[in-house]
Amino acid sequence: MKSSKRSLLALKLVCDALAILFSWLLAGYLRFYIIPGGVRASFALFVQISVLVVTYTLFFISRNGLYVEDLEHSWRKQTNKLIFSAFEGFLLLVITLYFGFFAKVSRLAIGLHFFLIIIFLVTERTLLSAYIKSCYRKGRYNRKILLVGYGDNLQNYERALHSKSILGINLVGQYDGQGTAIEGCRQLHAESLRTVVDQTHPDLVVISYPGTEYERQQAMVAQGLDLLNEKVVLLPSLPESYIGTQSSDFRWIPMLTLNAADIGAFQRMAKRLFDIVACSIGVAIISPILLLLAVLVKLSSPGPVIYKQRRVTRDEKIFTMYKFRSMRSDIAEGTAHWTEENDPRVTKIGRFLRRTSLDELPQLFNVIGGSMSLIGPRPERPELVEKFNTEIPGYRMRHRVKAGISGWDQVNGWRGNTSLERRIEFDLFYIRNWSMLFDLKIVLYTFFRGFVNENAY
């Protein structure tokens, strides 16, 4: 391991250990010295147990991959893993104290520690990430990356490295480009991958070739397996819409599950509970607005207030979706397609409702009824789903979760008549990375950039 990696790892370990220790001692101090009823003599035993607390929590932090250096620092992912690590350490500590200690340890102090450790770990890691990013800008802890091969995948990867969220990257060059050089990337020539690695000393080697170059890719992968001190990754030649994958093995036979993107049963229950509570409260609060909009729609043109339409949700089940009517009911709709700009069927109040997404408020009742979720992929009509299923690989994977009023693709601008491929990518990203915090983040984003959209006609 290189000295920069060792120093960065040591920094994380020390900061985590101090955060854990401080939260444990503070919990004990509050219980035995501040909160009435505490026995101060018990604080000595509490201090001795701190060794176990720090060891357990650091073990689970390491086990959950928080000491593995990642190219992109995601605060959300890191926070989720920290909370889960703290919870695992807390459970193991409770089991140890229950079965291994005759002396009773204050349950209130242990409970205080659990809440404090989450606060201290998240705060400490947030500050540490900010410090590391400042070091990246100064040229410290930079990670060297060697690109091997050529093709669209490798070019897309190189472009992604220039994202604002990616810092501390030093691209040392491209090897075996076969005349297909990546613009602005230094071309490296040598007899073998080992020779190039010895010359450039990269931290990460990224291998990728077009699907037609399978044998060449395998030969380079074989050379990559001989590298001991460098991390080697392979960018598989798969369509972007298939990125719901999970790797495993069966009796040493590697397997790649293409449709692994899913949300577990327990997580679905939590998501459903959140939907019911949030939407019930929402309907109660905005009921005067719903009534006002219903009156405006009724006065705008003849026809019903609520527009009902068949849409597709989880497992490709068809349901009736509710919206405030935004179009004239006396003009035929024609073939299934998205609404276009300046559509003559749209009423004046309907255009306002569409631009502000207020026409979708009745879908809160869809969510309460169970046919939709507050957050998820936008539902499409059965005719369009049937069409897209035959034209776009991986489109069906959107239906692994319930359709949503808002979603990760919408708050990122992929709404209306926009690229279906990009929308699928965002939907699959949401399914793979789902968490309650992610849902809350999308809800927050919806208020700031999800209601008004230039693609909503």
Briefly say what this structure is.
The protein has 15 helices and 11 strands. The protein is of the alpha/beta class and 457 residues long.
Q: Roughly how many Å is the radius of gyration?
A: 27 Å
The helix/strand order is: HHHHHEHEEHEHEEEHEEHHEHEHHH
Relative strand content: 5-15%
Major β-sheet profile: 5 strands, parallel
Overall strand count: 11
Strand order of the largest sheet: 3-2-1-4-5
Total of helices: 15
Structural class by secondary-structure content: alpha/beta
Q: Overall 3D geometry?
A: flat
Fraction of residues in helix? 40-55%
Low-pLDDT segments = none
Euclidean distance between termini CA atoms: 56 Å
Mean pLDDT: 84
Keywords:
457 residues, alpha/beta, 5-stranded parallel sheet, two-stranded antiparallel sheet, 15 helices, 12% strand, flat
Q: Would you kindly provide a written description of the structure presented here, covering whatever features stand out?
A:
- The chain has about 450 residues and is an alpha/beta fold.
- Helices cover about 50% and strands about 10% of the residues.
- The chain has 15 helices and eleven strands.
- The chain has a five-stranded parallel β-sheet with strand order 3-2-1-4-5, sandwiched between helices.
- It is flat and about 75 Å long.
- The mean pLDDT is about 85.
Layout of helices and strands:
Blueprint: H1 3-34, H2 43-48, H3 50-63, H4 75-100, H5 107-137, E1 143-149, H6 152-160, E2 169-175, E3 187-188, H7 193-200, E4 204-208, H8 214-224, E5 231-234, E6 246-250, E7 253-257, H9 265-300, E8 306-312, E9 318-324, H10 348-356, H11 363-369, E10 373-375, H12 382-391, E11 404-406, H13 408-411, H14 420-432, H15 436-450
Parallel strand pairs: 1-2, 1-4, 2-3, 4-5, 10-11
Antiparallel strand pairs: 6-7, 8-9
